[in-house]
């Protein structure tokens, strides 16, 4: 890590001269009827980050504005590709494209649980998208994108604890225009897009945008001879703009997206990815790898992960269909003394996805691609803002209200695969004192059945047989439903105290109510049968370990026929005040300094996962017993207090923005997969010393942090914030010549857990699976990131032709990709480079461009995780601190390899 930090520090000055990452938004105050503007003219950057059209240099908060020109040159077609031009932003996707996660300053929502709202909210044309992953769709032609860094607890329709991505699409204009673009690249990549803008009268104009994308997958499923992580999608957007007078503008937007794709495959982590893997993948050292091998797993799966060959269970599929559509109506009405803005929106998003859920050849877990593994959001929202000036324009006031009603429906069909029973019994036998009996071709994985358990031996072996028979059993269909109703009142006011000195005060009240219900369907009768047979034996200390092992795997994830037909319900309410206070001063027209405080909030909710109800060993106790446990699914709202000071300087061809920030998060919402189930905890700090109670464990007796009572240690009565994010951001741009733009982005973000941690607001102990967290950086939170780009568009003689030479780069220091921070999930620092060169006709009526993404073919992982259920026996030498997961093996979602191609573009 030290090497990467030094490299970042030394490279920054050189990159400033050679490369950069400018983020130029088009002039939002320009008349809508100007269909084309020269992106290199001197024009002020205008954004709406404070609910008003303001020059970026006059906005006293950290915001990056990214123009359509920059997006086109970088090849960005969804929010994930903003990483290259926004150093404080990191967008990644994992088990499904629907579950993409955005992080700003190292803070974001972790994991795939739809019950957790996004720390980084995404708005498209003023309408909130229910989860940030929805922004991974095609976007069509974009006017600009604003990335607001830090909590946004006053304006916008929805609170966001880490930041906002505000996307503004290209609006209709009153001049006829049309354009088309065709791209072809490796992996048989075909992308076609176009638009048609038509005036329909003096006061009415319409516009249609469309995109079609097809591409082969980056992974090759060797078993089923097909590719995975492909693209097959289209996007349509239609708009009407009505301007009967200069005082009234009405904009109606409708859009539809459909994706029919296979996503997302994963490879096993080996020493090519992470040096701390050691001998985990060696069948001679790890019994779980031996079991996988003996049940058919090709050992080639544990070598050369960047070949991107995967071995999906025969007949299993990652196929899925996503449909996303919606309409919005924005009305801007100048009433004379004030301006009224109304934004009404309705969104309907549904995504279903099949999966080989264990990511191995052995058929352990799966979700059928039959439409019954899905999530759907139906959201109605209404925002009203009224703004104006008073006291001879000394006060710039804004008041508003927001209402949203959202229905979230999640269906799940997770089932044990056709080899689960044999895998489970072999896992127990191979990793225990029974290993001499290990026989993967025999019933129960037992070569013989000696009286190893005394008089209880017949009962134990019968339980092995029942576990061995759990094949294609589990969920028939689970239905989760959550209705979220929230409303808010807010005000945001700028007081011009004296010339150059402003005070901004904002306040928001939010009221949130969530209602939850779930109904379960399950046919795993072996769980209830083994519970009835084995629980009477559990008090016998000599039998406790084998009983727990059999019941744990028989009822894993609370998959039990006891839940068949059972329903549960719950409700939670919360209200919060959030807001901001800013002092800004402009000693000259070119320089502004500011200091701010803001309080942000992200709603609490329900963990939409039955495995969180209880440990699987004991029965539920029927309908009443299950309902009594529903409170275990709740988690608290996340609160952040943030402080920021900044400087903005802009004159002629040079601009510089600097911000220093400190953000304190209480009840930080963390979602972690421990190899068996997903854990959702509110991470907090403790003001008193826990004496290692948050770092001990009861799994490895030979480790220095062993404590048989670790599950009960580490409680705290003096709870405080648990996550601290602080650092410095820099954005600089320079235009030494009309046809040349260069700049630089640099973020240093020290985003860490505090040294003493607890698991909720009441000070309960932190889960042992999270014992690596105290004092360490958050996952996917590199300390150093630099982004840089250069755009050169020289005229080619006097013919009207021009050239294009564009390169951008993102350099990232080391970070951990796993939310439990196990060392096997570390990612070394790396550099990504994109490039584009081309020639363009007069007035850019046509263009031909050659491009490459990830030009240097940098291999790296997006997220590493515990391979589901694939943990071997606990014991030396695989113990803390190097192996906190013991003989747990790991999988990873790889980032995209190098892609390249050619683009043809025309407009008229």
Structural features:
8 helices, 908 residues, 22-stranded antiparallel β-barrel, 45% strand, globular, mainly beta, disordered N terminus, single chain
Please give a quick description of this structure:
The chain is mostly beta strands and 908 residues long.
Termini Cα gap: 51 Å
As a whole number of angstroms, the C-alpha radius of gyration is 28 Å
What share of the residues lie within helices?
under 10%
Q: Please summarize the sheet with the most strands.
A: 22 strands, antiparallel, barrel
Write a structural description.
With 908 residues, this protein is mainly beta. It contains eight helices and 48 strands. The strands form ten sheets. The protein has a 22-stranded antiparallel β-barrel. Strand 37 and strand 38 form a beta hairpin. Helix 3 (287-294) runs antiparallel to helix 4 (420-430) and helix 6 packs antiparallel against helix 7 (541-554). The longest helix is centred in the first third of the chain and has 17 residues, at 2-18. The radius of gyration is 28 Å and the shape is globular. The two termini are 51 Å apart. The model is unreliable at 1-42 (pLDDT under 50).
């Amino acid at each position: 890590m030290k090497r990467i930090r030094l490299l970042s520090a030394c490279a920054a000055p050189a990159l400033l001269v050679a490369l950069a990452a400018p983020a130029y938004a088009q002039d939002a105050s320009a008349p809508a009827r100007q269909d084309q503007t020269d992106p290199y003219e001197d024009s002020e950057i205008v954004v709406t980050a404070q609910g008003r059209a303001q020059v970026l240099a006059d906005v006293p908060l950290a915001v990056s504005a990214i123009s359509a020109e920059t997006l086109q040159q970088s090849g960005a077609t969804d929010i994930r590709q903003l990483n290259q031009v926004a150093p404080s932003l990191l967008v990644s996707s994992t088990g499904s494209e629907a579950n993409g996660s955005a992080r700003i300053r190292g803070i974001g929502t972790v994991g795939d649980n739809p019950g957790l709202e996004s720390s980084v909210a995404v708005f498209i044309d003023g309408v909130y998208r229910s989860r940030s992953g929805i922004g991974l769709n095609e976007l069509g032609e974009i006017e600009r994108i604003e990335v607001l860094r830090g909590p946004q607890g006053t304006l916008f329709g929805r609170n966001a604890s880490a930041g906002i991505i505000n996307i503004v699409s290209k609006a209709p204009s009153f001049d006829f225009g049309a354009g088309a673009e065709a791209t072809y690249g490796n992996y048989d990549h075909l992308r076609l897009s176009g638009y048609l803008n038509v005036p329909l009268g003096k006061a009415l104009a319409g516009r249609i945008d469309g995109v079609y994308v097809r591409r082969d997958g980056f992974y090759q499923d060797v078993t089923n001879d097909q590719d995975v992580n492909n693209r097959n999608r289209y996007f349509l957007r239609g708009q009407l703009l009505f301007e009967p007078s200069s005082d009234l503008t009405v904009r109606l937007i409708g859009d539809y997206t459909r994706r029919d794709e296979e996503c997302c495959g994963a490879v096993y982590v080996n020493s090519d990815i992470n040096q701390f893997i050691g001998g985990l993948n060696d069948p001679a050292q790890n019994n779980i790898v031996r079991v996988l091998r003996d049940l058919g797993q090709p050992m080639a799966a544990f070598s050369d992960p960047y070949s991107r060959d995967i071995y999906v269970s025969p007949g299993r599929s990652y196929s899925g269909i996503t449909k996303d559509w919606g309409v919005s109506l924005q009305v801007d009405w100048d009433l004379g003394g004030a301006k009224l803005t109304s934004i009404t929106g309705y969104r309907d998003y549904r995504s279903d996805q099949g999966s080989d859920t264990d990511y191995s050849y052995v058929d352990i877990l799966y979700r059928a691609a039959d439409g019954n593994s899905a999530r759907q959001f139906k959201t109605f929202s209404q925002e009203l803002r009224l703004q104006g000036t008073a006291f001879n324009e000394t006060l710039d006031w804004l008041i508003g209200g927001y209402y949203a009603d959202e229905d979230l429906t999640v269906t799940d069909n997770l089932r044990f695969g056709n080899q689960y029973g044999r895998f489970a019994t072999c896992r127990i036998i191979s990793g225990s004192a029974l290993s001499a009996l290990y026989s993967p071709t025999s019933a129960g994985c037992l070569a013989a059945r000696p009286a190893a358990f005394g008089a209880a031996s017949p009962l134990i072996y019968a339980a092995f047989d029942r576990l061995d028979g759990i094949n294609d059993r589990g969920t028939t269909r689970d239905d989760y439903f959550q209705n979220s109703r929230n409303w808010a009142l807010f005000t945001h006011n700028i007081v011009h105290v004296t010339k150059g000195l402003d005070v901004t005060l904002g306040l928001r009240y939010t009221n949130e109510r969530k209602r939850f219900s779930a109904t379960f369907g399950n046919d795993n009768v072996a769980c209830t049968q083994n519970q009835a047979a084995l629980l009477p034996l559990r008090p016998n200390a000599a039998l406790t370990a084998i009983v727990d092992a059999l019941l744990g795997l028989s009822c894993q994830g609370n998959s039990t026929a006891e839940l068949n037909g059972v329903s549960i319900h719950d409700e939670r309410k919360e209200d919060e005040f959030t807001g901001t206070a800013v002092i800004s001063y402009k000693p000259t027209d070119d320089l502004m300094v500011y200091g701010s405080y803001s309080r942000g909030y992200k709603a609490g909710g329900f963990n939409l996962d039955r495995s969180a109800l209880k440990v699987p060993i004991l029965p539920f106790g029927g309908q009443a017993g299950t309902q009594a446990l529903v409170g275990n699914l709740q988690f608290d709202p996340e609160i952040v207090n943030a402080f920021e000071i900044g400087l903005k300087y802009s004159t002629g061809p040079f601009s510089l923005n600097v911000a220093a920030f400190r953000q304190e998060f209480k009840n930080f919402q963390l979602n972690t997969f421990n190899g068996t189930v997903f854990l959702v905890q509110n991470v907090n700090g403790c003001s008193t010393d826990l004496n290692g109670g948050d770092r001990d464990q009861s799994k490895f007796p030979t480790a220095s942090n062993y404590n048989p009572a670790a599950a009960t240690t580490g409680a705290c009565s003096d709870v405080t914030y648990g996550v601290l994010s602080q650092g410095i951001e820099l954005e600089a741009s320079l235009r030494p010549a009309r046809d040349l733009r260069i700049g630089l982005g640099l973020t240093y973000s020290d985003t860490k857990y505090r040294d003493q941690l607890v698991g909720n607001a009441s000070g309960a102990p932190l889960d042992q699976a999270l014992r690596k967290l105290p004092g360490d950086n958050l996952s996917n939170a590199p300390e150093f990131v630099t982004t840089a780009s250069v755009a050169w568009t020289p005229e080619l003689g006097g013919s009207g032709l021009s050239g294009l030479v564009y390169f951008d780069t993102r350099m990232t220091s080391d970070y951990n990709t796993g939310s439990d921070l196990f060392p096997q999930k570390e990612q070394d620092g790396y550099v990504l480079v994109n490039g584009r060169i081309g020639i363009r006709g007069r007035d850019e009526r046509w263009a031909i461009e050659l491009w490459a993404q990830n030009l240097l073919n940098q291999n790296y992982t997006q997220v590493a995780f515990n391979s589901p259920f694939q943990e071997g026996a606990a014991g030396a030498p695989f113990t803390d601190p190097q192996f906190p997961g013991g003989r747990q093996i790991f999988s990873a979602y790889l980032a995209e390899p190098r892609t390249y191609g050619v683009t043809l573009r025309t407009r008229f």
